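Can you make up a protein sequence with its backbone structure tokens?

===
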Amino acid sequence: APAGEYNLHLGVMKEMKPDMIATSTQDVRVVDGHAVIVEAAVSLGGRRQGDGITVHRFANRIPMLFQPGSDLTVKTCNSAPPQGVNWKSYKIDKNSHKVGVYVSICSTKIPYGGPNKEYIGDAHEDLKRSVRGAIMSCCVQLKARLARREALKLQKERRKNLQKYIPFVTKSLSGILETMVTDGCAEAVKDDAGVLLAVRGFEDKSISDSTLQHKLRNFVEEADMEQAMAAAQHGDKDTVAREDLCLRVLGNNRRLTRPMHSTVGVWKLFEDA
């Protein structure tokens, strides 16, 4: 019987402790008149994972340890498209990243490639497509999470760089306002309410350098948040990792309302039936 995505995910997390993991189960295919189910997991990082791609093969939940070079899964991971996986298209470097590939093939008759039953043969096109599809499905999930992590990293760096220049901008603004107060420029800027308010505030000492720094920090944080929200609303859906959050209904006399769409999610509230 198949292990199931939950058990596969749980086992890899327990033993390898990866930074990221994705699982996938392909539809049932028929190989030589027997039903075959392919399950796969792809992980990144981990305390027991070496650099490059490490393939773990299972047949009916039994590990396969010998003749890896002849195995279908190993060939799929190491070959170039269209027979193999284009790792670069999923933002994964198969040479430097710690990539773990776990493929489990379950069937009433495993299509072994040799009499010793030490590897899976690559003579069946349907099986090859199923193995490649399972691995690629996991890679698509990891690509979305990697893109999200990279976007958050860039957002943090951008905010850090902007905040680094706040003292210099504050000093420049303070000098400009002081010059305007000294030259009596309040009448010249009376048509601009914002500038006039700043000049009057600097003149009566209600606006200081610390006030300007506080306003600039708030502006940077608000602008950064607005940009992130706009990217989440109008960005590519495939580059954002989304997960369903389910709430259990307390009792049978409640039902879900119509979905409400926002920039951060889709909300469904409970109401009495």
